[in-house]
Amino acid sequence: MAAESPSEGAARSSDALARLAEERVDHRFKGLPPDADGLTVGELTGRRRNLFTDGFATPVLSLSAERLEHNLRLMETYATRHALAFAPHGKTSMAPQLFQRQIERGAWGITLAVPHQVRVARAFGVQRVFLANELVDPAALRWISAELDADDHFRLVCYVDSVRGVELMDAALRGARRPLDVVVELAAGEGARTGVRTEAECAAVADAVAGTRTLRLVGVAGYEGEVPRADPERVRAWLRRLVALAVDFDKAGRFAHTDEIVVSAGGSAWFDAVADVFAEIPELSCPVLRLLRSGAYVSHDDGHYRKITPFNRVPEEGALEPAFRLWTQVVSRPSAEQAFLNAGKRDAAYDLDLPFAQVVRRDGTERPATGIEVTALSDQHAWLRTAPEADLEVGDWVGLGLSHPCTSFDKWQLIPVAEADGTVVEYIRTFF
Amino acid sequence: MAAESPSEGAARSSDALARLAEERVDHRFKGLPPDADGLTVGELTGRRRNLFTDGFATPVLSLSAERLEHNLRLMETYATRHALAFAPHGKTSMAPQLFQRQIERGAWGITLAVPHQVRVARAFGVQRVFLANELVDPAALRWISAELDADDHFRLVCYVDSVRGVELMDAALRGARRPLDVVVELAAGEGARTGVRTEAECAAVADAVAGTRTLRLVGVAGYEGEVPRADPERVRAWLRRLVALAVDFDKAGRFAHTDEIVVSAGGSAWFDAVADVFAEIPELSCPVLRLLRSGAYVSHDDGHYRKITPFNRVPEEGALEPAFRLWTQVVSRPSAEQAFLNAGKRDAAYDLDLPFAQVVRRDGTERPATGIEVTALSDQHAWLRTAPEADLEVGDWVGLGLSHPCTSFDKWQLIPVAEADGTVVEYIRTFF
């Protein structure tokens, strides 16, 4: 099969992104102005409509243009400063426009979790994918193998954590032209998520890989976010185990068939520890790709990630800014203590925290949501408790902060990106 | 503006549904066979692929063709037997193909919760919408008003529960040719969700409606599912309050401008009580539309709704059947007590219960998931605890039962409908 050149890959990416601008605004996309129906997304972007005054219908999730840009820039700087390669986790946004901006800002590639997400990335020309998960599905493996065989510039690395998994992969991949690159996943501890629990078992899995012609061992990886009772010491101790595993494998000649050794870790809670420990990786038999995978930074949040971001420990390195705001409207105010918004579980993340009432807009004026608290979500309503000082009426817009980017992005298929004055300058398409 | 004839409406519906079959299978739709990429949905349907053997990729949510049909038929029979008009809540599935089947089976129309959902229904030609929510957004009201003015056969009824809400609606609707039909929402009790709390306030809201030319009062409604500390007596007591409100309004001449009085209640937990109490509605000044709105029955579930369905109290009237099964694959088995599936919060409902491990498939054989329990969900993984008797390996498929149809449908945009032997006979498109 013909191999695509890098410029062909770039062309595929740019074509597919351009086609996003040609999509019609219609019933598929909630929150958009009903009178924009039938325009293309590109035409609507050109109108530079205002989120607050130009007919957007609540509920509508918005991203801050300035904060999004700030976050993209900050993590690029962070990775560069710490000599880390960066494959931001794309499962967070599943937005090819954001993948593109991440890659333009120097990202090595995009991390993903399941084969469907790889299909999305490939449809938009992403050339390097780190699949931070085991993959044993024959249909998905055959599809990935066909993509690899058709495009020499496509690279995909995925996890292995069991001999049986290696056998299933090998059986599915027989006949492939290019081997599939794999890394052994080291579990974050007893009772933690996926991954091999002991170094001895890691060696057995690596032996199994070496016994195939369809797989090639290129490194080790894991997810420090699952370290039991995580604290800076325990996380660093586990990261050192991961590095030691790479060193041992290298000494044992297990990376003889690669010209680059991959060592990867790093969610959104401990990338400071990853930077520190990966800086200690000694010289190995070939160059090391120290690969960080944080994904939540792109929107950041007003809850969970605000609390756990490593920048709280290293404020001198910067600070992420929460970029989401969910705009909702008060539809009912049945008592002095209660009010109800027209947004619920269909619109807002609710798995880690409830949304936070941040601001109220009435007649073009925005003020803090004093005395207003979200106490529950129904499918299509938010329940508010209002203190005596709360000034809130039916018709008011309430801006909510959210907790957990991954379960915010996935409830919206086309997200307006607004500047501080409300001018919408872009629409981000997601694929979940 | 030209009014559409009913046959034009039907044509619009049938055209839009036909266009769904022309959509391309691509990266937008997870779980579908990667090698079906580029086929139309209609072509893929024609192939009658098998869910288990023809390349579907896990995770994949499936609906049982037989159970879906059973549930649709059962609620049609139930409504007919109890002389109830039926507007199944469409927010559950947001699937125009299911709306169509509900309407073909005699449904009066479709209930919806927010204007975006009305846009979806209108794009597929739904002619009667019961919007079971307050609506005060000017952009959305103007769009609905334009739809009403353009199509005399379109009918929409929505809630009002405050004088301020009525004022906002009136201001947005000035200049409309047809008035918007509204019902006063009676709250289910103190501290319950939206709705007017007292009969005196209901009268004040009705007065406000009567003072406009843009709104027309056609009835009363509410949601017994929010009755505090609900039990059969409390729910019936509240339903009798709702009926008494309709009777009082009628006596007071408040329904003088309608030729049909709407009385509506009924989620998926208490429709037996609704049937009983609505059977007691006395003769009023014009015919009464006793409108039931249950929506979850279409897929039913293996958790919350299985427990609370009224059919548990009236088994002689039938039983709903859980129609969803989420097929997942074991990707990791790091210890004798743990295993991990490739499906998580992105794929399964988790707001009321975790998924239930039901069956294991290996080499074409299906058996009960003995000793296997879902203990947590990550974004893209399910955590399983396995007892000593559990026979589970990497590569096995695990079929999960789900709890809460509303948060299951909304994670899938194209859902294969399979017969008992796995033959996929239809693909249901959702719009969230």
Automatic annotation (TrEMBL), chains A, B:
Belongs to the DSD1 family. PANTHER family: D-SERINE DEAMINASE, ZGC:162816-RELATED. CDD domains: PLPDE_III_cryptic_DSD (cd06818). Keywords: Lyase. It holds the Pfam family Ala_racemase_N. Signal peptide: none annotated. This is Amino acid deaminase. Residues 323-419 form the D-serine dehydratase-like domain. Coiled coil: none annotated.
